[in-house]
Amino acid sequence: MGALLGGLGIAVLSIMMIARVLHSEFRGAPFRTFIRGTKMVSSSKLYRLTNTGDKQISLAGIPMPKKIEPLHVLVNGATGTGKSVLLRELVASALSRGDRLVIVDPNGDMFSRFGTDKDFILNPYDQRTEGWSFFNEIQNEYDFHRYALSIVPRGRTEEAEEWASYGRLLLRETARKLALTGNPSVHALFHWTTIEEPESLRQFLQGTLAESLFTGSSEATRALSSARFVLSDKLAEHLSMPAGSFSIRQWLAQEDAGNLYITWREDMSVALKPLISAWVDVLCTSVLSLPEDENRRIWLVIDELASLEKLASLESALTKGRKHGLRVVAGLQSTSQADDIYGLKAAQTLRSCFRTLVVLGGSRTDPKTNEDMSLCLGEHEVERVLYSQNHGERMSTTRAIQTIRERVVTPTELAHLPELTAYVALAGNLPITRVALTIQQYPRILAAFEGKNPC
């Protein structure tokens, strides 16, 4: 373990040094005087401004000031522009100083490069997975309510939310009843909520809030059918998890418990999406239960935010998690993806919670995202000297000073940005910079996926 951390530390230092050599100076239109707005500097200058030499996180080769780490990082970029390269560097630097990480890890790439025997995997189809159940997270009566929201997220439309609310009601009241047996299971929960005869279910839930699903005639029938339909989708993959006692909130409370990798293969992504989203939301709500400790460092790394369902607890985690040591790094290919999942206003609110921004190359076929990211990188107001010539009988040249307000980086520049090139805008009153990413080799030391024996 010591050798691994030492190697990671050397690798991170190498990246920072290479980035200093390969820095890119801003080559925009020249101006006479900078007045106000976003300032662009070379990556070597920003490196000097932020480097304290005190085990900082490396973000695209730039040392992050420690005080802005809990303000979260959004990484935007089209497919194939270098997002994985950037995230591996960040993960390596976090591991080198002993931080804890929860990594939503498509194809097990991060686990294969950085995993150790102290770490944990959640993946129902990997034989190394921990055994987990919804009931493992329940410690208090109100947990049924908040974790039901993790399993059945809010609907994207009013109609979808109405259905989802019926599902959450049936889920939490049935789970409460099963918990009273002393040996609850997800299999029993699934059977009661989706398969059991309605009359038997009604008798089982008599005296609970879910009894309202059986009161009346056609409306009650529709509500119950909606609830069972929703849960048949959201709970199905929970049945694939092996029995066990692993709890995300207990893992969070044990500071020496290693790191957590939530993995899947791309051919599993559609089936596992509800389960993976539930795990991430459980983490987001559970971290807020930890005692406040700004010296705690827990990173949640989400390679692609749009690969998850609507997370009910994400906004609270982003706005309140800082006091509990949470740092979120999320990738996003297109702003329209988040708009579609969360709605325009909620998606804008979520993006506003990420104070540090890294923008890689955009797609020419997605001008909206390029426009949004250009706005995020900011504008500046400058004075330029303009010359005009009069070609009359006496040719003369006129010199004038013009004040201009303009984008520091235009949408077109982002659409044409080369691979492994990014703009870094750190939180606070710091200038932005353009950097060239360097591919650092992190060899695979573990299998990314070990399938279960079907027999």
UniProtKB/TrEMBL annotation:
Signal sequence extent: none
Cited Gene3D superfamilies: P-loop containing nucleotide triphosphate hydrolases
Highest rank taxon of the organism: Bacteria
Domain Type IV secretion system coupling protein TraD DNA-binding: 57-438
Compartments in which it is found: Cell membrane
Membrane topology: Multi-pass membrane protein
Record Pfam families: TrwB_AAD_bind
The keyword Coiled coil belongs to this UniProt entry's keyword annotation: no
CDD domains recorded: RecA-like_superfamily (cd01120), TrwB_TraG_TraD_VirD4 (cd01127)
One cellular component term from this protein's GO annotations in UniProt: plasma membrane
Transmembrane among keywords: yes
Keyword set, alphabetical order: Cell membrane, Membrane, Transmembrane, Transmembrane helix
InterPro entries registered for this protein in UniProt: P-loop_NTPase, T4SS-coupling_protein, T4SS_TraD_DNA-bd
Protein name (database record): Type IV secretion system coupling protein TraD DNA-binding domain-containing protein
Organism: Legionella impletisoli
